[in-house]
Amino acid sequence: MSTIRSASSSAPASVRLPIDRVSNDALTSIDDIVIVEEPMEIQIALHAQVEHTISVTMRTPGDDFELAIGYLLSEGVIRDASDVQDVRYCGPPSPDKGYQNVVQVSLTEDTTVDLERLQRNFYTTSSCGVCGKTSIEAIDVTFSKLTPSAFKIARNVLKDLPSQLHHWQTEFQRTGGLHAAATIDRDGAIQRVREDVGRHNAVDKLIGSYLYEEASPLRNLGLLLSGRAGFELIQKAAMAGMPFIAAIGPPSNLAIELANERAITLVGFLRETGYNIYASHGALA
User: 228: closest CA among 258, 246, 249, 203?
Assistant: First the structure.
């Protein structure tokens, strides 16, 4: 990125709300910790500051700039951090709760964008990005050329990943209401975690965090998912060049097809006692 980056939101990911709890037929009034879900509009600013809204997603506030950049990469709008000029909040906070819900990403002069294709993708939900898109064509992105990866992870370290991830999921432990995505190294150590009410948002935040910091390439890391591995999550990992995905839940048939097409090793139903290998492309040692 070529300008100083604005600070992302420190808005709370959860709030306390009064509820009635029923246990053993007894009713008690208590305060519960509930996850926050707010809309976020992603805008891009092109040449001459022409602004375009390309997505509105329901997300958990926090890491908003990472979410925006990760989304742009996974949708094929940008190739890497060099396409981004600046990221900032746009407009006033929401009048009801004070959240900053519009993020604008300014792109560099030499970045070209297919706006017609992006308009097909206008609304995404927190549960599933694909289901809000208006056509099958909107799911398609242009993948970059496959880049060889030397990433290999030992099979015997996979069983420790679910407990590691649970330890890192601070907001999930508080609320029970968040998905998580994590990067793992070849030793099976978690490098960083992002959480969100939407599983695809968690992956975008994670990928975007590496672009935002212009950190090491993601092709040298694996992806760990707290739930199922749907097609769109595999697509996002493929766009980021990640060679290995392990999911605590199952993959879909399209997810497996895409993993094979993009030479991604895909593991599902990951437990301490074992796992299933759905696509094998050399990442398991």
Answer: 249
